[in-house]
Amino acid sequence: MGIVIQLDVMMAKRKIGLMELAEKVNITPANLSILKNNKAKAIRFSTLEEICRALDCQPGDIIEYVKE
User: Which SMART domains match (predicted)?
Assistant: First the structure.
């Protein structure tokens, strides 16, 4: 499996929707959806930083390594 994005879990905990988070992070809803659904191949540190700022969390709260 490798790297798993748990963005949907953190969004639910913070009670924030995709459109609202996309606006706060200044990313398109389509790109945020790709990230949220584990379809992204990469993420910029600046985007990760903005997501963590908007959700008041640490990168480890939304990114997890799962052994294959």
Answer: HTH_XRE
Q: Kindly write down the DSSP assignment for every residue of 6-58, as one continuous string.
A: -HHHHHHHHT--HHHHHHHHT--HHHHHHHHTT--S---HHHHHHHHHHHT--
Task: Report the number of distinct structural domains present in the chain.
Answer: 1
Predicted confidence (pLDDT) per residue in 23-65, tens digit: 999 999 999 999 999 999 999 999 999 999 999 999 999 999 9
Q: Which H or E run includes 5?
A: strand 2-5
Q: What is the CATH number of the domain that holds 19?
A: 1.10.260.40
